[in-house]
Amino acid sequence: MKTVLITGASSGYGLETARHFLAQGWNVIATMRTPRQDVLPRSERLRILALDVTKPESITALLETCGPFDVLVNNAGIGVVGAFEATPMATAREVFETNTFGVMAMTQAVLPQFRARKSGVVVNVTSSVTLARMPLAAVYTASKAAIEGFTGSLAFELEAFHVRVKLVEPGYAPTTRFASNGSQRMEGLIPEAYAPFAERVFAAFAQPAAVTRETDVAEAVWRAAVDTTGQLRFPAGADAVALAQAR
To answer: Would the CA dihedral through 108, 214, 48, 98 be positive or negative?
Structure first.
């Protein structure tokens, strides 16, 4: 029986991905900053453990506790929406610490066990903002685009060790906790000069042509984890699929 470790599994895509892998009969290690035992049904195949991907000591403690696993899903992420001009560099660094360096740190920490076994899969969850321009998301887009380049290069680098590296690119999902998780971080990021433009953008967000469901992302992560064809990118959601095809 295979085991998957999922970061950022307390809500949204990570939580739904944990549910999906449990339904497929896998062992699941669901990690989150503050472990909550009530977010998933009890199962002998489930462990809920603490992890902060921005803290090296947290990563080390987790790997010493959880034992070996077959698939790492780097899902933990934070969001920010606002005019770049008004975004403090401290906020940009905070976003990169989780979305970019957190992914790199987790991946680097697990590669020795994958390489030694000559098996293993790393699935990095990014965003469809890397597939098309999205206004008021320059910092967030940059943090995710960095992982797109990182993943493509790493996939090539690890082929000789039979370690697979994949990308899942979710589309727009207003039901996720992206905004609520980052509300304090985004205060004051729409200056008056940008307000008319931002109003038009937010109005468009409120009436999207297509919406990505959490189940769409969970299924894409599953397909990426079990894929053996060499496919790198797995867009998730109708809008992400359309953007990927247009690109």
So the answer is: positive
Q: What is the pLDDT of residue 182?
A: 53
Residues 132 and 145: their CA atoms lie apart, in Å, by: 11
Average pLDDT of the chain? 92
Q: What is the pLDDT of residues 188-205, one digit of tens each?
A: 799 899 999 899 988 887
**Residue 232: exposure state from Cβ atoms within 10 A (0-12, 13-18, ≥19):** middle
Q: Which residues are catalytic?
A: 140
Considering the segment(s) 3-78+97-177+211-246 as one domain, its CATH architecture is 3-Layer(aba) Sandwich (3.40)
Enumerate the domain spans of the chain.
3-78+97-177+211-246
Q: Which of 206, 221, 216 is nearest to 239 (CA)?
A: 216
Model confidence over 21-56: pLDDT tens digits?
Answer: 999 999 999 999 999 999 999 999 999 999 999 999
Q: Contacts from 177-180 at CB under 8 Å and sequence distance 24+?
A: 177/11, 177/12, 178/12, 178/79, 179/79, 179/81
Provide the 10 A C-beta neighbour count for residue 33: 15
Tell me the residue length of the chain. Answer: 247
